[in-house]
């Protein structure tokens, strides 16, 4: 079984972990303002160990055909939005806790 054990570098969302079957995120979830195509707006994101942000948009753009389980241990209600993004990315099951 593969995992997403390599540190997130903020730039390899489409290739890192493509063969992964599970992911565990134990971090803070927050809502931040981001610049979108049409206008700035809020989005949910995870603050990872190296202080980079993994946004809901980045998560939803992932294509993880072998993904089975994502476990989110985020400290706020943002884990609900992030959990939905994990389903869009291809995870078959997601557990989100606050």
UniProtKB/TrEMBL annotation:
Protein's recorded name: Uncharacterized protein
């Amino acid at each position: 079984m593969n995992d997403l054990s390599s540190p997130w570098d903020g730039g390899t969302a489409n290739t890192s972990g493509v063969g992964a079957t599970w992911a565990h995120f134990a971090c803070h979830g927050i809502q931040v303002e981001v610049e979108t195509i049409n206008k700035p707006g809020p989005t949910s994101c995870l603050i990872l160990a190296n202080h980079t942000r993994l946004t809901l948009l980045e998560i939803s753009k992932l294509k993880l055909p072998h993904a089975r389980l994502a476990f989110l241990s985020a400290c706020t209600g943002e884990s609900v939005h992030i959990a939905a993004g994990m389903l869009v990315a291809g995870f078959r099951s997601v557990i989100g806790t606050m």
